[in-house]
Write a structure and sequence with these properties.
By secondary structure, the protein is an alpha+beta fold. It is about 15% helix and about 35% strand.
């Protein structure tokens, strides 16, 4: 079981190979269409990190809806305090439906947003400012210009420009 002073291990840098991107807001500029690319991780990455850092049996999650139908996820982590007593800490956040599988996306979103409260994938909210267009992609239909290959690819193959 993790010790209280080790809970900060959850605030770990997200490995580049775990980061995925999806289009956020779109805009037109110089007669071309662009999308702001948003970084994210999938729920399995979060589950694996919780298992690795705090232990398989030392965390749990619960979902509930409030009276307005909003879905909440609560993650609870058990730890050993400085005085040797086993204690726990819980964090809660909401999710929103996705465009593909709405209910599954809502559950996944709530779970991942909740994990950010513990530090997991929090660094994705602090990526460099897209002023240099590192996290902006030109669009043609449903494809995005990959700055590393200078070709239009499906979103799963898009990566930000390397070396900036």
């Amino acid at each position: 079981m993790i010790k209280e002073n080790e809970l900060s291990k959850l605030n770990v840098a997200t490995p580049k190979d775990e980061i995925k991107y999806r289009p956020g807001s779109t805009f037109n500029w110089a007669e071309k269409k662009y999308a702001r690319m948003l970084a994210y991780v999938d729920a399995r990455y979060i589950q694996d990190k919780l298992d690795e850092i705090v232990g398989i049996c030392n965390w749990s999650n619960k979902f509930h809806r409030d009276e307005k139908g909003i879905l909440y996820c609560t993650i609870t982590i058990k730890f050993i305090r400085e005085d040797g007593v086993v204690d726990s800490v819980s964090k809660t956040d909401v999710g929103t439906e996705s465009n593909v599988e709405q209910q599954k996306g809502e559950v996944s979103d709530a779970f991942k947003r909740c994990a950010v409260h513990f530090g997991l994938a929090r660094d994705l909210y602090n990526l460099p400012d897209p002023k240099g267009f590192k996290y902006v992609a030109e669009m043609k239909g449903n494809k995005f210009l990959n700055p590393n290959t200078n070709s239009f690819v499906v979103v799963q193959q898009w990566k930000p420009k390397e070396g900036k």
